[in-house]
Amino acid sequence: MRFLAKAAAVAALTLLSACGEEKGGGGDAKLVVGFSQIGSESGWRAAETKMAQQAAQQRGIDLRISDAQQRQENQIKAIRAFIAQGVDAVFIAPVVATGWDSVLREAKTAGIPVVLLDRTIETSDPSLYLSAVTSDTVLEGRVAGDWLVKTVGAKDCRVVEIQGTVGSSPAINRKKGFDEAIAKASNVQIVRTQSGDFTRTKAKEVMESFIKAEGGKGICAVYAHNDDMMIGAIQAMKEAGLDPGQQVLTVSIDAVPDIFKAMAEGDANATVELTPDMAGPAFDLLVAYKRDGKAPAKWVQTPSKLFLPDTAAAEYERRKDLY
Ligand code: AHR
User: Fold this and answer.
1) Given phi > 0 = left and psi -120 to 50 = alpha, else beta, which region is 62?
2) Whole-prediction pTM value?
3) Which residues line ligand 1 (CB under 6 A)?
4) Which of 36, 38, 40, 45 maximizes ligand 1 atoms within 8 Å of its Cβ, making it the mutation to test the pocket?
5) Which of 20, 122, 145, 320 is a good FRET partner for 265, with 20 to 30 A between their CA atoms?
6) pLDDT band at 14, cuts 50/70/90?
7) pLDDT tens profile 253-300
8) Which ligand 1 atom is nearest residue 227's CA?
C-alpha cells in the first residue's frame, strides 16, 4: 500500500516536471534558492556573495551557495545538485557565456526557474532562464573609453588593456564598448591586450610583461576590465618606477573600496561602478513571480556610473565596510 502511494506521488511529480510546471508556487514555506557562484577571484565577487547572504537573510530565504572556483564544469555539477535537491530556484553567475543550454534545459524540465546574476549567456532559447540581473557591460566599456578620449584630448595615447576571463560576457562586452568609444579618436590606440582573468596576481604579471615589451614610458593609459586587476597593474607600475595616476592614466570597472583608496592617494584616475547587490533584486523578482505567476522583466539593468578622484575619499569611507 505504502509502495503504491509512493509510486503515485512519484508519477505525479514526474508529470509535473514533464509539463515544465514550476515548483514552489505558493504557500508560506521558506523559499530555497541554490546559487552557483563563480568563486572569489575579485573583491567585487566577494562583496556580491556577502550581499547575497545578507539579502537572503533579510527576506527569510534559505540560500545555498556553491563556489565553482572559476570552473564551468563545477557550476554545471552544482546546478545538477540543486535540481536533485528540489530547490525553488537557481541563481547562476555564469563564468563564461556559452555552454549552458543542456543544464538549463534540465532545470526547466524539473520546473525550476533560473535567474542569471551579473553575467549573461549566449543561448538559442531565452526561455531557459527567467530573468537576468546585470549591468550593461558594453556600456561600462563605452563609459570608460569615452572618459579616456575626453581626458587625453588631442594627445597621442598608447593604451594597454587587461581583459577579464576569456569567454566571459563582461570581458567580451567591456572590450567591445571600449573599442567603440576609442574608435572615434584616431590618437587613442590599444597597443597591447591580454587576459588577467579578473585577478590581481595575473594582472600584475600581465602588466609587468607590457612594461617590458613597451618600455614603461611608451604607455599612456591602462584600461583594466576590473578594479582588482588595476590594483595589480598599479603595483607593477610602481615597482617599475612608473607613476600611475599621474604619468600613466588608469580606468577600470567595479568601484570597489580599494580603487577609491588608490584614487584618493593619486594612483588611479577613474572607475565605472558595478553594484555587487545583484541577488537582492533577483530575490524580489522571484518572490513576486512565485506569488503572482507573472513573468518578470527579462533584464533588470543595474547602473554604470563613472567615479573620479574628486569623490574618492568619501566613496572609500562609505563603501569600506559594505564590501
Ligand atoms: O561579472 C562581473 C565581474 O566579475 C566583475 O567586474 C569582476 O570584478 C568579477 O570578477
Assistant:
1) beta
2) 0.91
3) 41-42, 44-45, 118-119, 170, 198, 226, 228, 253-254, 274
4) 45
5) 145
6) very low
7) 999 999 999 999 999 999 999 999 999 999 999 999 999 999 999 999
8) 8
